[in-house]
What does this fold into?
Amino acid sequence: MNTLIRIVGTLIILNGLLSGAASAEDGYDLWLRYQPLPDTEREILTHNATALITPENPSATTQVAINEMQRAFHGFTGNHLPITSEITQGTILIGTPDSSTAIARLALPFGSIGKEGFLLRSMEINGFKTTVIAANTDLGLLYGTFEFLRQVQTKQDLSLLDIISAPDIQLRVLNHWDNLDRSVERGYAGQSIWDWWRLPTVTEPRYQDYARANASLGINGTVLNNVNAQPEVLLPRYIAKTAALADIFRPYGIRVFLSVRFSSPIEIGGLDTADPLNPEVQQWWKDKADEIYRHIPDFGGFLVKANSEGQPGPQDYDRTHVDGANMLAAALEPHDGTVMWRAFVYSEHNPVDRAKQAYDQFKPLDGDFADNVLVQVKNGAIDFQPREPFHPMFGTMPNTPLMMEFQITQEYLGFSTHLVYLGALYEEVLKADTYVQGKGSTVARVIDGSLHGYKQTGIAGVANIGVDRDWSGSIFNQADWYAFGRLAWNPDLDARDIAEEWLKMTFSTDPEFVQTAADMMMRSREAVVDYMTPLGLAHLMDTGHHYGPGPWVSELARPEWNPVYYHRADSEGIGFDRTPTGSNAVEQYAEPLAQHFSDLDTIDDKDLLWFHHLPWDYQMKSGKTLWNELVSRYDRGIEEVESMQAIWESLRPYVDQQRFERTADLLEVQLEEANWWRNASITYFQNVNGLELPEGIEAPPYSLEHYKSLSFPYAPGI
Amino acid sequence: MNTLIRIVGTLIILNGLLSGAASAEDGYDLWLRYQPLPDTEREILTHNATALITPENPSATTQVAINEMQRAFHGFTGNHLPITSEITQGTILIGTPDSSTAIARLALPFGSIGKEGFLLRSMEINGFKTTVIAANTDLGLLYGTFEFLRQVQTKQDLSLLDIISAPDIQLRVLNHWDNLDRSVERGYAGQSIWDWWRLPTVTEPRYQDYARANASLGINGTVLNNVNAQPEVLLPRYIAKTAALADIFRPYGIRVFLSVRFSSPIEIGGLDTADPLNPEVQQWWKDKADEIYRHIPDFGGFLVKANSEGQPGPQDYDRTHVDGANMLAAALEPHDGTVMWRAFVYSEHNPVDRAKQAYDQFKPLDGDFADNVLVQVKNGAIDFQPREPFHPMFGTMPNTPLMMEFQITQEYLGFSTHLVYLGALYEEVLKADTYVQGKGSTVARVIDGSLHGYKQTGIAGVANIGVDRDWSGSIFNQADWYAFGRLAWNPDLDARDIAEEWLKMTFSTDPEFVQTAADMMMRSREAVVDYMTPLGLAHLMDTGHHYGPGPWVSELARPEWNPVYYHRADSEGIGFDRTPTGSNAVEQYAEPLAQHFSDLDTIDDKDLLWFHHLPWDYQMKSGKTLWNELVSRYDRGIEEVESMQAIWESLRPYVDQQRFERTADLLEVQLEEANWWRNASITYFQNVNGLELPEGIEAPPYSLEHYKSLSFPYAPGI
It folds into this structure.
């Protein structure tokens, strides 16, 4: 045994040296690192995994599960996990009742796990201690296999496994805002991983690793292209490219979807209209769907951004969202395809508070959409801000399945350079109570369908994935992808538990490390709120790139693109009055929530200026004036980033050099930019309100003109 | 020993498994793979490299050399190469006369190797067999170290080393056409490796590996940004980013240069002119140069594209190229900086043959440029075509140092998807005889300065480097980077020798493999000429992307952007008459070359239609009509690609799966596209000349309208 250990030790060193420093711990392997285990754990694993019993003629999906198990075992131990046909001590038995008589013989609660769930159990069979991974489908087996590996990676007791798990939400998809030229809108981790130019003939090993990573989380769909869709994606040569990706993803249970441009019948179909009630248009979409399904039999369907931010849509022909969505749904219906129709709509011609417009447009349509349509709603009513109250549509469309759209990438959140654990944001939204059917009517229960009995359910995350070697622009950004996937499977999980799990798999299972780093992650989201948009402020980002501060911006063509529209600061006060004395957006929430938001005595500070316009000298619960509180929040944001730096520094002993230094460098950038946000914002607001800084507060070093003069023409992701 | 072998064997397998399939042989390590050697060779190396004697206080550059030696030794053998102070059997002694008394004591011809050369010798010292790596500078040591490692990698006899080498050309630089938004003009290997957004705080391990790869070839400069330069690159914050890269590259002997936009004084300087004779403008550039050198003391200088394809320049103010270049030269001169002024100029307002315009503009300026100006000339008079005669400027400006601009990336050459070994193209150009001082006045002798006694010499390659994991978009494209670097060091090398050397380092030293693969590489360049632009044709590529065929294009605003301008095909004949009866471009070449090109009896088929307009029934040396010959060349191109496919298939036993399949897939794309070129071109020319296809020749499958209808709005690199 000692020889083996020494070999494995040597091997790790050599592994780094041989492959060059860059591939040592460069983040490519994500949370599937399968690094050699320390002695004790390796012995436990070896004891509990002596051999694998698999179905006789494994499907492609089962083969993927077997491969992953063997790859991981080899990584953990340096040894090969043999495949056997006989149960002995420590055998892992994997199969469905159909594919494995051994599994069929066991009395397991298959009825409770549906099509995608699995059972993972330590069982005694014929007197031998075994581990059973069982499911009704091969995809369930794959999910169960990844769960088993997660148990190993997070050091659970492998002899006492008893997990029964099935996803709460049916469609768990990533949305890639990837363009066909390989740029990524709001992407901050390099170009699109889809090399459209070389597909379908040339494919990348990365496509497989993408599928592995997503399958490990239970993600079962991916929308390959930007919601601001290019019509060419529906040309035959792009369908062939999409089909090549679908072929790679299929064994991993991942179906491909495409974003489509509503006017495609004109642009690539040669028609002179895209009117959804026009029979030729309807036929064109039916034919196109038929063509796609000839090449991709399990194609998922279409995601549509229509009549939103300049995109074409049914309203161009005086038709409704229902008309548009149902036409596409009819084309997909024979193939079991789905339409995901986005509710992210607002108009510069509509003087109503932007936060109210989507609700106003969609609520009247409740119940009119075809059965295979889901309406996809962003978590908040504006646009992926560091903090927004949950979108008022959630809970108010009982007859239309609403799916959640979360952002995993970091538009408005400092791009991929800022460490902001979005798991905390997702959790806040999912656990928010809509009260539409009384207490406990959480957003999670809306989207998992349990509140209204939706027949279809879904959740989407706008991906933070690019060709950067670490996929997401930083190691810690991988946690947001991970958290999205875990919450998509089970929206009731705790963000902190997910963070700990991810930390163990990504860095170290040392409890000191895990607790400290999880603290840092959980605090990170509040930090960004404080240094960017404290106290319920929102959308203060500079034009175009949505990166640095631009609270002064007021000249953009559409009023609701200007930060001044949102903060409404003047010499008297600040905030957006959404109570009945203002836009009355509160009325879109159920009681007692509307009242809670409206009432200055009950509303939380975190939502204050989202719902209220208040004088600068308004007395906060803290006893400070609003102005002094605002300034102190900015300073708290800075202090938190400084604290994150110190925490990270304390974790140096637990982290390899490459990932440690990368993260430390990024935190340095984050601190610089948090200061920039703080200083520019305070300078601007002082300029508006003419107030002095509270005593002892450091004055910003530059004039407002300086901050206004900064421009970033080459910012990524635009 | 056997145990070690088994460990190393295990290790290689594990290395792949642990790091994931993607990093196994994914091309990241380029020609610096340092893979474990087979027994015999490992023993030879171990025998000849028992320990390393280094200078006592190694400089950063010497430390880089030591690190590389140790890293390589570890890769080759799995063992650590110790550092010692005493000469014993098999010691490697590395040092300069200044840094090492042991080296100083040896009687070595230091006078002959200049500042960058090195000596690499097997010597007996004190009765011990040793290897000496000696140079006058630390950079020479680094180059000598890489040469030693190349000797190991190519299996030379390590006990009989006797190499003395110094570069023939002083400035050996890469030109990155990389924009500040990370797009790369004419880049087909992913985004720019420079992550401008995150610099200077965040740097990539890749920057170091880039420097290693270049230093291994002797490349000593890099122009970081596109010749179509963005003025912001000279803003303080970009100078800081550039400085961060310069700091990383410095130990590797690589100086950074920037492309500058001539109108920068207006755009970022606030002046209202960029007139080079304006004192304020001159002062602005002086101040800017001073500012740069404060941050980058060894900054290389500026590369300038002026009055070319819409770029601003001195002619906007009725000044000359000399006025512009010398103004910048004056700003750089106090700091020993250099101006590289591009001669790639032509004008849509000039009715003269585009191929003549650069010569016409620059020749009269010979001798007027400041001493620290080099004029950078593309290898041909048009623009990086699959084949062009060498640029007539070479040889005709004895008082102005001309530097060569080669293309390493593959605009006009099928992008990175086509296997085209450009070493063959470089060699053809460098060995071309200008005859300006009689026979033997090769282009190589122009640019290495020996023909005219240039005091400064230089060569530039437009990089094919991007963030693709394999750097260059394919493994075989790495050979072009490699060949450029080797020829920049010694322009007299044979392209085939370079190919063999590269193959040994990149794949296998097996002679069967090396010979067969080198054959394939050498034939690949003629193949692309045949299927794209045979018989001296040029610039037949479709608009914008310059990828697929577009011989029919005639409607672009500038006449010389249209393929019809170049081929001049009509019902009677085809080709560009550049003899005295036509544009008389031949007169720009010295005799007897002008006569050679003019005379149909002497001119080679490969240059025929570059210089002559001939009837379709012109009788070729082959006995065929011109039309039939043209068609047969297209077919030969196809056959050659088919042959490359067959050759590659035969090499499967020598190549790891990942690199084998990637290359095979790319060859499949290349064959498809070669056919597309052949069919579209023949269809078009038939449409023009109304001629039948020769007997037995396969008719193109589609109509001209089909080929014209193809459009590629999302092609990379534009």
